[in-house]
Amino acid sequence: TNITQLTTEAASMTVPLPVHATDDLLLVFLAKDAVRSGTWSETASTGWTIGGNLDNATGGCNLMWAYKKATSASETNPNFSQTDADSMIAVAISVKGVHTTTPIDVSGGNGAVTTGSGKETITGLTTVNANALCFYTLGDSIGVGPTPEPGIQTVIADDTASVGLGVGWSIKKTAGTAPNHVFYCNTGAALNG
Description:
- By secondary structure, the protein is mainly beta.
- Helix content is 0%, strand content 51%.
- It has strands at residues 2-14, 25-32, 41-42, 49-54, 62-69, 79-95, 112-113, 119-122, 126-127, 132-140, 147-148, 153-159, 164-172, 176-177, 181-184, 189-192.
- Strands 1, 2, 3, 4, 5 and 6 form a six-stranded antiparallel β-sheet that branches. Strands 7-16-10-13-12 form a five-stranded antiparallel β-sheet, with no helix packed on it. A three-stranded antiparallel β-sheet has the order 8-15-11, with no helix packed on it.
- A hairpin with a 4-residue loop joins strand 12 and strand 13 (164-172).
- 44% of the residues are buried.
């Protein structure tokens, strides 16, 4: 897995992709410090699927994840946009050795707005296949990088001072329900996938 991170304040963000090869799974997780900004779109290249979009009506953080199976080793960096200009943070990940016809076998989709208790639980997925790579993510509108608890590997726990993003992963060796995981944060919008 290779990781690239950037922050900006705008209505759209071009996310630099890490080194990748044909058939790698490309994943982008993005958090935005905004309330009700509408659906995300990708405008720079083709083949991206928005896997989940939490358009938060009650708090100050939107969260999105998208994926694409690379068709070459030189994919165009995606540009994700939403209606208003605000602070954003994103991470792009490349995963080798994924199932080439069904790289995403199950998703938690759009997640749910959380309570802001400082310790947010993200519900585990029920995987279809053994040896599933499970990602968990949380956006935080206070500008503190949500940190995954021990038990999952941290990809990113960072912030722009007004919006934070935490992403972690674990392997589910057998098909079935993956465990819930906790992120430590101030307030947030949770999304799992």
